[in-house]
Design brief:
The chain has 411 residues and is an alpha/beta fold. It is built from 14 helices and 15 strands. 43% of the residues are buried.
């Protein structure tokens, strides 16, 4: 009985130590960027673009990222299902007969990988690092906040996401013995968090938010968004398989893509598009969209004009890390007669491979900035930065309360 009591005592102490260790760690909510959330759909349509397209899914099925849906011919069916109905700009919604939902809100299955077959990694390595280094647990102090990235924050869907996120923050706080939460965002998730944090009153933020970490924040837009609307973007998938013009049909219906056009404040008077004998700057998007004859393009662009990508004072401590010295699309030159249906010659500049450097560097202007660092070399591109061991170690030390203000990554 003595040894049994001793073993039980030791087990109790060890368990208590594990719990205490977990309790001293700041819980985290991970917010993905554009194309970073798995989206499921259930559809029953009366009309399809081709006879081989399925009208009735009969159950929930993967829409993003569905790699097999990107195959030639099949992609036309996918676009018809996933594009938005833009009949009423102020009431954007799915194509008639289609329902959608994000996968695994509050947990991590919908953000660890971009696809359910686990081919394209996103946050998974970072999550594993937090589990290994700090003993953190998925669904308890590692939470995921995926969202339907087709919509901007001012849409009905975007506003509903903000409400869900508020409840998720409060729930995570309570699950972890009233410990304030660290929000970690990637890519377009950062402008989303700018709008979320700006909408919360200071008393709420002081209670529930420990801080906000930005990875690869697209605070001033990205030139690639222009190319998406003009000529289509394959979202990193090989163009030999995925037709940019087919993707363009979907991308032109998403307000979030127009939202990410580079801002005049970042690009100044730099010409971004050269086509048909004229140049277009960041102050001439309406004319560009009119000349391109994008259906509802000007209306969608105007719709997101009052939604900021960046605000300097969010009322929370901010930590920023992004890549640098990666070849990044900046300007697009179309040959005579090729605009906009042929891919342009791309003139590149500095950035993280996706977001231009001036946009990334807006992070420096946060009033409560506690840490800023630009990293280069291996795994410094827009998505790969989430896989870097030094970045994961940085986040681990921050959540464990071991990071000194201004401390740099060891690279």
């Amino acid at each position: 009985m003595f040894f049994l009591g001793l073993l039980l005592s030791l087990f109790h102490q060890t368990t208590e130590q594990r719990v205490n260790k977990t309790q001293t760690v700041t819980p985290v909510i991970l917010v993905p960027g554009i194309c970073g959330s798995q989206v499921d759909g259930w559809y029953k349509k009366t009309v399809t673009p081709h006879v081989y397209c399925t009208k009735d899914s009969k159950t929930w099925t993967t829409l993003w990222l569905c790699l097999e849906c990107m195959l030639p011919a099949v992609i036309n069916c996918w676009v018809d299902t996933f594009k938005l109905n833009t009949t009423d700009i102020h009431n954007l919604k799915n194509t008639n007969g289609v329902q959608t939902k994000v996968n695994d809100f509050g947990y991590t299955n919908g953000i660890g990988y971009l696809d359910k077959n686990r081919f394209v990694v996103q946050f998974e390595k970072m999550i594993l690092g937090l589990e290994t280094r700090l003993g953190m647990k998925r669904g308890i102090n590692i939470r995921g906040a995926p969202y339907d990235y087709r919509y901007s924050p001012n849409t009905k869907v975007g506003k509903q996401y903000m409400i869900r996120l508020k409840f998720l923050v409060e729930e995570t706080y309570e699950l972890n013995d009233n410990t304030p939460v660290m929000i970690v965002a990637h890519s377009m998730g950062n402008p989303y968090m700018v709008n979320f944090l700006a909408s919360m009153d200071q008393k709420w933020k002081d209670k529930y938010i420990k801080g906000y970490v930005s990875f690869a924040g697209v605070f001033g837009g990205a030139s690639k968004a222009i190319r998406s609307i003009m000529s289509g973007e394959t979202e990193g998938l090989p163009e030999i398989i995925v037709d940019p013009l087919t993707m363009r049909e979907f991308e032109r219906t998403s307000p979030s893509v127009y939202w990410l056009f580079p801002t005049p404040g970042v690009m100044k008077d730099l010409p971004l598009v050269f086509a048909n004998g004229r140049n277009y700057t960041a102050s001439q998007y309406r004319q560009l969209l009119e000349d391109t004859k994008v259906h509802k393009g000007v209306e969608l662009y105007d719709y997101i004009q009052d939604v900021p990508l960046f605000l300097p004072d969010l009322g929370v401590d901010v930590y920023c890390v992004h890549g640098i010295n990666q070849t990044t699309p900046l300007q697009f030159r179309y040959k005579e007669g090729s605009f906009p249906d042929k891919y342009p010659t791309t003139i590149t500049g500095n950035g993280d491979g996706t977001v231009n450097l001036p946009s990334l560097q807006l992070c420096k202007q946060f009033k409560r900035l506690k840490h800023y660092q630009a990293v280069s070399g291996f795994l410094a591109t827009h998505l790969e930065i989430l896989q870097r061991d030094d970045v994961i170690e940085f986040l681990s030390e921050l959540l464990a309360g071991k990071l000194e203000e201004g401390q740099q990554l060891d690279i």
